[in-house]
Amino acid sequence: MAKPDAKPLSERNLAATRKAFAGLLRFLVRSTARLEATGGGEGLLVRADHQSRRFALPVIAAARARGLLEGNDAEVRLSMAGRAALRRLLADPDSAFQDQHRDLARRADASGDTILVNSLESPLAALGRIRTGMASAG
Predict the structure, then answer these.
(1) Under a CB-based contact definition with an 8 Å cutoff, are residues 45 and 76 in contact?
(2) Distance between first and last Cα of the chain
(3) Across 5-34, average pLDDT
(4) Spans of all domains in the chain
(5) pTM for this entry
């Protein structure tokens, strides 16, 4: 497929189209998508599960330029940087940086109570915190 003509987004325009940008990343989080130019400055992304959605080509071009998408002209997928960007976009603005580095999950502890844990945290770090807490208590 020929490379689509798309003007790059300026930082100001990107901020104005944040919703579309987040929608693109959200759409690609499930799987790789085939990109088809449809004219009128839009591209049609079709995932392996046959779900499709139209996006403005400048939004796709801006995501590629920032390293958020990988692939070639015919196929795109979310990069690791794209996954982190999506987490920041969906996070509370006050904790966006921290939220991209944690994966909170509910688990049951030994007593059967439900607790919230960061599954990306090292088990050794958790043990170290427990040990430090015990040392200061005793």
Answers:
(1) yes
(2) 68
(3) 75
(4) 11-92, 104-137
(5) 0.59
